[in-house]
Amino acid sequence: MPAALPHPTMRDLPDLPPSVAAALWRGHALGGGPAHTVPSGHALLDAVLPGGGWPCQALTEILSPQPALCEWRLLGPGLRALAEQAGPVVLVGPPRDPHLPGLLQAGLRARDLVWIDARTVAERLWAAEQVLQSRPDRGALLVWLPQARAVALRRLQVRAQTCACPVFLFRPDSAAHEASPAPLRVAVLPAADWQLRVRLLKRRGPALDGVLDLPAVPAGLARVLTPRLLRVGALPLEGNPHAETLVRPAVHGHRADPWPVHH
Questions:
Q1: Domain 32-257 class, CATH top level
Q2: Partners of 143 in the beta sheet?
Q3: What is the spatial distance between Cα 63 and Cα 65, in angstroms, rounded to a whole number?
Q4: What is the pLDDT of residues 206-258, one digit of tens each?
Q5: Which sequence spans correspond to the domains of the chain?
Q6: Alpha helices of the chain — where are they, by DSSP H?
Q7: How far apart are CA 173 and CA 256, in angstroms?
Q8: Which residues pair with 170 in a beta bridge?
Q9: Strand (E) positions, the chain?
Q10: CA of 123: how far to CAs of 133, 148, 163, in Å?
């Protein structure tokens, strides 16, 4: 029986162009690559994200049990920094009208926002593609997509590769069972004590076991909450008042359930 061939090492590889060498990464190592990233504003999260922040030139999927539940608390700190660089934050099809006083508390001004009122999935996909085709080099694009076919997501991912700002897609957590071209997929739900419970479903690099509990007190409440009010239980999800908090991920076949609920 022939001897097994040794695995090639980086020293075995021929000299590569710098751009190619910078894009190489091993499957057991956290991916980096030449793509630019922007800090999320959550130190715990940045420590486990490839490149140390939200990726540019790629899609990031945010999956949650219901829309308008965690988006601004998760993205707010990073968006505030992007807006300070005179970059517009483009909103495509938000499920609720943007609440300007709340956004002001989070550090976002009205002039920082571009709100596209797209109602149908087709309109949202078309609007998102038009924004990406303009190749914005600053700011951020946020798109709410309750439904989307894989071919449409692949088209957005191709467009996003020419975009120098982060692109976020908000989808229901049931979409975790579907294949996605997005290099980064994040499941999030509210947890106790004003925290967000985050699980990385997909990233460039090894899988991340367990979850992250991120402090995420809404900006408008941070100055007025007393220490006692900072220690509150998790709010029940709409339509499921008895839902319990995630304990650990479960795997059904080859599909990960981001938030298994135990009763």
A1: alpha beta
A2: 92, 169
A3: 7
A4: 989 899 999 988 776 777 777 777 676 655 555 444 333 332 333 333 334 45
A5: 32-257
A6: 18-23, 43-46, 71-84, 100-105, 121-133, 150-160
A7: 11
A8: 62, 144
A9: 37-38, 54-55, 59-64, 89-92, 113-116, 140-144, 167-172, 184-190, 195-202, 212-215, 250-252, 255-257
A10: 15, 12, 20
